[in-house]
Predict the structure.
Amino acid sequence: MQLQGPFTLPPFFDFAATFLYAISGALIAARRHYDFAGILALALVSSTGGGLLRDGFFLQSGPPLLLRSPVYLALVLVATVFVVLIGPRVTRLPLFDRLVALFDALGLGAYGIVGLQLSVAAGLSLPAALFVGIVNAVGGGLLRDVLVRREPDLFKPGAPATWAALTSCLLFLALTRLARADETLSALVAIGVGFVIRVLALRFGVQTRALRRFDLDDPE
C-alpha cells in the first residue's frame, strides 16, 4: 500500500510547538548569560533544528520549511524577545513548565511522523525513513546541547523520548500499511500513543537505564 501523501500538522499546533521549543532554547541560553544574538540562535536551533537536519541534510528537497514561511522565524524572534523581557517572571510558574512538557510530548510523535512521511515521499527505504523521523523529533534538542557543549540529554538515562517517537512511527506504519486505516486517523492515534508514553514516563518517573555491566574504574 502506498501512502497517500505526507501527513501535515495542524498549523496551530506546529506554530505553538515551535514557539514553546524556541522559549526552551532561549531560556537555556539566557541562563548561560548569552547576548541577544546567542539567545536567538539557540532558540532557532531548539525549535527548528530537527526540520533543518531533515530538509537540508537527509532529504535535500529544496529550501527547508523554515525558510519557505516567515512565520517560523517570526515566532523564534518573538520567543526570544519574550524571554529577554519577561521570561524570568513567567517561567517560574509551575503551569508554564507543564505546558512546555505537554507540547514536547505531543511534538515527539507528531514530528516523528511528519519526518517519516516526508522521507517515504522522497523515496527513502522504511528503515531510513524511520531514522529521519526520529531525527526530526529529537534533532533540535540534540543540536542545542552540542552547541552549548553540554552532554546531550538524548544520550543519558531519562524519560524515553526517542522510544516514544519510534513507537509513534512504527504504530503509524502498522495502521496504514497493515491495517489499511485512514492516514490522518492513524497519525492521530499514533501521536496519542507516543504522547501517553512520554507523559506517563514523566509523571511516574520511568527512565531508561545505563548499562551498568560496562562500568569501568577509569571511564576515560
Q: What stands out?
A: The two ends are 49 Å apart (CA to CA). Residues 51 and 87 are 26 Å apart (CA to CA). The chain has a mean pLDDT of 84. The helical segments are 11-31, 36-59, 65-68, 70-90, 94-121, 126-147, 161-178, 183-204.
